[in-house]
Amino acid sequence: MNFATPFCALLAAASVFGQEPVPPDEVETEARWFQPQPAETPLACEVRPLAPVLTYRLAYRAGYMLTVSMEQFAGRTGPLEILVRITPKHSGAQPLLLKEVRAFPAGAGEQGRNASKYEARLPGGFYVGEGEYRAELVLIEGLDRVCRKQWDLELKPRNTVETPIPPGSLAAFSQLDWPHPGARAGSLTVLLHAGSARSNQVMLEALAAILDRLPFSSAQVVVFSLDQHKELLRQNVADPAGFQRVEEVLREFNPSTVSYGVLKNPAGHRDFLWQLLAKEDLRAQPADAVLFVGYSTFDDAHVFAPPAARKTIYAYFDFVPLSRRRSPMPGFARGRMRRLPGDDYSTNEPWKDLPEGSPMQPVLADAISRITRACSGKVFNIRVPGDLASALQRTGELLPGH
Predict the structure, then answer these.
(1) Residue 192: which H helix or E strand, with range?
(2) Which of 45, 58, 305, 390 could bond 147 through an S-S bridge, CB–CB 3.0 to 4.6 Å?
(3) Using CA atoms, how far apart are residues 26 and 13, in angstroms rounded to an integer?
(4) Which residues pair with 122 in a beta bridge?
């Protein structure tokens, strides 16, 4: 048994995004822990650096995996404090100091438990720009036991994807602002297909990247479930409150709940998709661009598109996960048994939004791709973040005035 699973499950919501910058008035007090303190005693821990990787936010994320043996905490129930300081080596920018406080799970420090078999694995991370950095980590238990680790990290210049983090700069996950509407005249509608909790996190990152790269003056997000034939939210995203509302709806969505009325109408998704696009064309000012964003559906039925009121650019960003090995299933079944993005996140590999490996059987057309093509739109298969960057560039080239 590995204690990493229940420990990380308890703190899943904060496992990667829980670290926050230390307030300016607390920096001096917290920074003292990076130097030996009187009367402190050693605490054993291991740190495995995680190299920078490109995320669906189209920003590079680096971090670490902190491993602590739980046998050190028998009879102790105090909190664990983690401090991380990342310092640019050459840019002269200020260091980024992050702090996180974690609680032990119930019974972790009880006497009599064989804690020698258990360990806690605690991931953390931050966004980086191109450059070289020095990272320092301090794990503090109580007021006297301390573990310190240091490592170097580097993000070499990449010419493939433009990122929102300047060279030599750093940002906590909470510091990377949601994009705001840009100067491009016209409007954008993003039809976001809700799925599992983990795939929805990928969708949310991709949504931010879309609005970064396609900066229309007006943008709305329509969250829907094709499986439930239901529109969940129609939200203007002109400010951070709009994004928070989208995030809340995705977090609360339960993909396993389907009404009996939906089940007895297996062809209802066709009418639902037609009505979804018809709403766009019936608006007083139809959107200049309509983007479907989501994972491949199981249904590949033909769907007739409504007549377009005017020239609108349509596209479908179809997130198709990769497989570590080819499936022994027949090709016709393999094309429909695709896992959702993020559904097989590993505790040991927190940065892998989608598993690495060779693509599965060539992607089969689903209902959303068929209706997109019926609207003379483009379908882009998104397997890795670089595919998203390429799809956004090609979509932008289709827009008037590019």
Answers:
(1) strand 184-193
(2) 45
(3) 25
(4) 66
Residue type present at position 299: D
Q: Which residue has the tokens 């822990």?
A: 33
pTM: 0.78
Closest CA to 391 of 342, 295, 318, 311: 318
Query: Is the sign of the CA dihedral 21, 9, 49, 247 positive or negative?
Result: negative
* CATH code for the structural domain at 184-398: 3.40.50
Residues paired with residue 151 on neighbouring β-strands, in sequence order: 135
DSSP-based three-state secondary structure for 44: coil
pLDDT in tens, 44-99: 999 999 999 999 999 999 999 999 887 787 766 678 899 999 999 987 788 999 99
Tokens of 359: 């693509």
CATH architecture of 4-175: Sandwich (2.60)
Q: 325, exposed or middle or buried, with CB in 10 Å at 0-12, 13-18, 19+?
A: exposed
Measured at the CA of 382, the angle between CA 378 and CA 383, to 5 degrees, comes to: 155
Instruction: Summarize pLDDT for 128-155 with one digit per residue, the tens.
Output: 999 999 999 999 987 788 999 999 999 9
Q: Domains of the chain: which residue ranges? A: 4-175, 184-398
For 346-373, how does the pLDDT look when each residue is reduced to its tens digit (9 = 90+)? Answer: 434 444 443 333 344 445 668 888 888 8
Average pLDDT over residues 186-201: 87
